[in-house]
Amino acid sequence: MAWFKRDSDSGTKQPSPEGERTVRTEGLWLKCEGCRQIIWKKDLDQTNNVCGKCGHHFRIDARARLALLFDSGVYQEHDKELTSSDPLQFVDQKAYRDRLKATQTATSLKDALISASGTLAGRKVRICAMESKFIGGSMGSVVGEKITRAIELGVKHREPVIIISASGGARMQEGAISLMQMAKISAALMKLDEAKIPFISVLTDPTTGGVTASFAMLGDVNIAEPGALIGFAGPRVIEQTIRQKLPEGFQRSEFLVKHGMLDAVVPRAEMKQWIATALEFFAGPAEQAA
Ligand SMILES: [Zn+2]
Read out DSSP for 142-193? Predict the structure, then answer.
């Protein structure tokens, strides 16, 4: 998200390195990545962070996602305290342990996913929402375990599962353990499938790597928000490998629907109704929730 600071008194758009006036107005305005126009941030609150001028979908966090989908924004959170044990004692630029701690403080989350249950259009569902602000929404042992538990409870209580992906892929700080989550979640989804309970995969900007390569593409329907970056490897890596220039819009939702990789592009404002209709198609009308 491209932020810029506005000096309200002088009217200049030059960002000053420090100063009280800059601090006061910081974050009031932002430049749309879609149409490059300046948007008043308050306007975005009214439109669920979709640009009113061009329809560009800004990224939103996991809590905002859940609030949009659950009836009255009410849900129960599960496995909230699960946290990584740093099995490899991994250190890169800093220790993984410290990176986790800092991110936990910054996001008030223990890891990159919220697992929740509640009702969607009167139907009991389980929704897992990934948080891209947490180490790039990377999938480690905690994300894998929380999703797996949510699916298993979905089987047990016969409740549909919805996973909202926003991820850079596997978490390299957990090495092979993070890769194993792909198989673990996929196996759990197989059981959900055998029990004939629907799984809807919602891909949001960005969904890449091991998440695309596993559960994000295993939905009974796989849908995405407009303009989302979805892929396995990044475009630069692919261009270097195949020595060809990639077509315009490659790895964006609309391109992927056109080429049969996704079932639909669904705008944020229509997402809840779209999912409710899909669930009704798969599982029949929702029983009136108590
Ligand atoms: Zn725009």
Answer: HHHHHHHHHHHHHHHHT--EEEEEEE-SB-GGGHHHHHHHHHHHHHHHHHHH
